[in-house]
Amino acid sequence: MSQKSVKKVVLAYSGGLDTSIILKWLQTTYRCEVVTFTADLGQGEELEPARSKALLLGIKPENIFIEDLREEFVRDYVFPMFRANTVYEGQYLLGTSIARPLIGKKQIEIAERVGADAVCHGATGKGNDQVRFELTYYALKPDVTVIAPWREWEMRSREQLLAFAERNQIPIAKDKRGEAPFSVDANLLHASSEGKVLEDPAQEVPDYVYSRTDDPMTAPDQPTVISVDFEQGDATAIDGVKMSPATLLTKLNALGKVNGIGRLDLVENRFVGMKSRGMYETPGGTILLAAHRGIESITLDRGAAHLKDELMPKYAELIYNGFWFTPEREMLQAAIDKSQQFVTGRVRLKLYKGSVIMIGRESPYSLYDQDLVTFEEGAVAYDHRDAAGFIKLNALRLRTLGQRKKKLGL
Fold it and tell me: Any catalytic annotation for residue 129?
């Protein structure tokens, strides 16, 4: 790729040291116009300083984009994912993975708006995020030029990055001069921490790493009881109070935090081929998953429920690997969304010292029939004698196998 071929690039820009270095590197290496895009996904940081930093680095005011994407993030990405009860490798609630398609999509939209011919991200060459960003870019703008500085520049150490910053008069906060003990990615769904002090999977996560959850051991001794309402698979209210998607998840996060819910120490298999150890905090998402499974337990038919559970690992893998904007993910989404037609009702939960305990569920579309399952005598549409034929038919092949073993003396 010719560096001179890029005229204008949209950079995913946080305002932090790394992306500020990338911004200056783009200006000095590609000699192109830089447009910055900063997304508010509920990471809990003040974003206006990113505007000031970009202006300081010579970005025109009309080339600075800061967008509040919290509602869109939860409504169009988090909630659709949770309709499938999605977890990667049985545990991970995909907080980082699900955010990347939205950021990439907005970068492409801005590129189209301002006439940019390139986009840039700050993901490293060892991680999954480079794949997620770039698959999104190419799916939505096939002819776009993608710049990935960590795969192009020669800087490999923090000392080299700091030296570049000082040479180019990029302000460096005092707490950024030393080696960071770990890295953090956060949004409204979760906070993930990895690297440095977390790289040895045999060592316990230090207490100072946790930011979204209180210690379950010191959480309140009395449980918190809440109710969550659902309409067609999406949570709509807490304790009867209707809320927007982002407001609802924010409330669940607060409830989860104080009760020490949502910590996960995980060694996962990255798409790029290596194993990595990370610590994830997903307080609201952990509650939401338990609540959604609770309402599904009385509203989903067995066949639909079991098929969903079979499809979910594939769906989770697609999201983890960055294939959100693909026909196969959209096909699975259509099936999942169809299953949620009658997933409406209310669940009650008890939050206690890191645990989410289901204590009640009700729905106008419930398939649970107390008369059918009761052990008490009554007018029920079930004849116990029917079970004999059912069992014999299911045992037929087992009896045939048994006869063969007997005949062969096995």
Answer: yes
Rounded to 10°, the helix 327-339/302-321 angle is 150
To the query of whether residue 100 is one of the catalytic residues in this protein, the response is yes
Are 344 and 235 in contact, with CB atoms under 8 Å apart?
A: no
pLDDT of residue 1: 43
Q: How far is residue 101's CA from residue 109's CA, in Å, rounded to a whole number?
A: 12
Instruction: List where CATH 3.90.1260.10 sits in the chain.
Output: 184-300+342-362
Q: How far is CA 360 from CA 90, 174, 226, 290, in A?
A: 25, 51, 10, 12
Measured between alpha carbons, how far is 197 from 204 in angstroms, rounded to an integer?
10
CB-based burial label for 200 (10 Å; 0-12, 13-18, 19+): exposed
Is 229 a catalytic site residue? no
Question: Among 100, 132, 212, 263, which one carries the catalytic annotation?
Answer: 100
Catalytic residue, from 183, 297, 355, 366: name it: 183
CATH number corresponding to 184-300+342-362: 3.90.1260.10
pLDDT digits (tens, 9 = 90+) for 307-357: 999 999 999 999 999 999 999 999 999 999 999 999 999 999 999 999 999
Nearest to 277 by CA among 182, 345, 368, 341: 182
**What is the rounded CA–CA span in Å between residue 278 and residue 267?**
6
Q: Which CATH superfamily is domain 3-71+95-179 in?
A: HUPs (3.40.50.620)
Summarize pLDDT for 249-258 with one digit per residue, the tens: 999 999 999 9
